[in-house]
Q: What sequence folds into this?
């Protein structure tokens, strides 16, 4: 995480965000489900997940959404303001895997002071999450 917020002028279309590996643990999956009040058993009970055909419990979309937002705001800095997150889930995140977050600035609105970042989080099965994040940056630093 940066201690300094990026200014709008620091960012160009095509700017790549640094890769962020996130270790997927049972604790992360269960804590994310409980914190988001998602008590669906497949997110905290391995037996329930296996009864649906999965090999283990798996991450919920709300946890993924939070990790995507965190990835972009950690890059942008503490004064950046998250304006929107639009994601689509693909392969599941299971314990013991690593999700590698990557991103690239795809649009920049000078008038609004907002950039859009295309994001992807991949694990050993493929893309767990793809989408876009809009973040407002200060116009000058």
A:
């Amino acid at each position: 995480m940066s201690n300094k917020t990026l200014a709008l002028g620091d960012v160009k279309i095509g700017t790549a965000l640094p890769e962020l590996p996130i270790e997927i643990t049972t604790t992360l999956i269960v804590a994310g489900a409980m914190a988001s009040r998602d008590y669906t058993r497949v997110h905290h009970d391995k037996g329930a997940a296996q009864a649906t055909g999965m090999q283990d419990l798996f991450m919920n979309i709300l946890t993924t959404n939070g990790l995507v937002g965190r990835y972009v705001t950690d890059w942008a800095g503490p004064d950046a303001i998250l304006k929107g997150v639009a994601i689509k889930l693909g392969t599941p995140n299971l314990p013991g895997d690593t999700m590698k977050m990557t991103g690239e600035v795809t649009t920049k609105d000078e008038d609004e002071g907002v950039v859009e970042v295309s994001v992807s989080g991949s694990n050993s099965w493929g893309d767990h999450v793809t989408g876009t994040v809009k973040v407002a940056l200060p116009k000058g630093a």
Q: What stands out?
A: The chain has a mean pLDDT of 95. Residues 8-136 form a domain with the Thiol Ester Dehydrase; Chain A fold (CATH 3.10.129.10). The first strand starts at residue 16 and ends at 23.
